[in-house]
Design a protein that fits this description.
The protein has 327 residues and is an all-alpha fold. The protein has one domain. The chain is built from 13 helices and no strands. Helix 5 crosses helix 6, helix 6 packs antiparallel against helix 12 and helix 11 runs antiparallel to helix 12.
């Protein structure tokens, strides 16, 4: 059997650069867009357009459309990921700096691990994992606490709550993703989710009156460019690079985007967006990233395995709770 040839090194480096820097920069693009376009409307346009392109592209290759059961699963995930998580992220970025938004969303593996331990009972709480969870939650506390004095103000409380709820919603989707019946094609699956999510976000925008009094002609070219960047670079090019990478590199290496994206977002927010970068932001970011690194590189020790295989060591791949960062 002939081995699959390794891709050219420059292609691999380019793909990593795309998921690192493009996904890291989408938070600033969102921040720019929501200054002029209502948040749910902006999110809806982004994901509807990207979803149409990805879904049509993969269907044109001859892959069958999802079954009815798969569409139901896609819709459930679209509600949790796009309507709830992204809807809250776009809303929160009206009041929370883009870099801090990225750091708050980096806690998704923290909440996923907590759900597996406390609710699903599919993951065993170890000392290492427990310490990582506490460090991650401490990082969030540093960013939002009004009792901690570090020379700069905490982030907006309502925005912080929205981001935590969004992270929890995505974590729930990550857990359900392993149990639901979904299309085998990753691009078809994501395209369908984006399409449904975009429709739901546009309906929510109409329900909350975001179309009322909104004048399309008043939107600057800067805001339209940010939307185009989110659609083309953030949701189509970067996701295509991500899918290519997971077929050519190990999940552990590909999953490093979860550590790099928040750093890129914080730096871009500071240098290009004029966002503050004080001791609070640095300490909170450091604690959250340490937590994420430990959690995503800790082999899973499942409860059933711990009870049934007492004499046999658990061998598992690192738990990479992917945001699939369609960010």
């Amino acid at each position: 059997m002939q081995a699959t040839p390794r891709p050219d090194r420059w292609k691999t480096l380019l793909a990593f650069a795309i998921i690192y820097f493009v996904w890291g920069s989408t938070f600033l693009a969102i921040r720019i867009g929501v200054r002029e376009v209502p948040p749910l409307l902006l999110a809806g346009m982004r994901f509807f357009a990207a979803g149409i392109v990805l879904y049509a592209w993969v269907r044109a290759t001859g892959i069958a459309s999802p079954s009815r059961r798969e569409w139901l699963s896609v819709t459930l995930l679209a509600v949790l990921i796009f309507l709830v998580d992204y809807g809250l992220v776009f809303w929160a970025e009206q009041r929370v700096p883009s870099g801090i938004t990225a750091v708050m969303l980096a806690t998704i593996p923290v909440f996923t691990a907590l759900a597996e331990i406390l609710i699903l009972r599919t993951q065993q709480l170890t000392f290492r994992l427990g310490c990582a969870l506490l460090v991650g939650l401490a990082g969030v506390a540093v960013l939002v606490s009004r009792s901690v004095s570090l020379g700069d103000a905490p982030i907006d409380r309502s925005g912080a709550i929205a981001l935590v709820v969004g992270a929890v919603s995505w974590s729930l989707a990550s857990v359900l993703n392993r149990k639901l019946t979904l299309p085998q094609s990753k691009i078809l699956n994501s395209g369908a989710q984006m399409l449904v999510g975009g429709i739901l976000l546009l309906l929510a925008a109409a329900m909350f009156g975001e179309f009322n009094g909104f004048h399309w002609q008043a939107v600057s070219s800067r805001a339209w460019l940010s939307l185009a960047y989110l659609i083309v670079a953030g949701s189509i090019i970067a996701f295509t690079a991500y899918v290519w990478l997971i077929h050519h590199e190990s999940p552990t290496r590909v999953g490093t985007y979860a550590y790099v994206n928040p750093v890129i977002a914080v730096l871009l927010g500071y240098f290009l967006g004029g966002e503050p970068l004080g001791a609070r932001t640095i300490l909170g970011t450091f604690l959250v990233l340490v937590s994420v690194v430990v959690i995503t590189t800790t082999p899973k020790k499942r409860m059933a395995e711990a009870l049934a295989l007492e004499t046999e060591p658990t061998t598992g791949a690192p738990s990479l709770t992917s945001r699939s960062s369609r960010r």
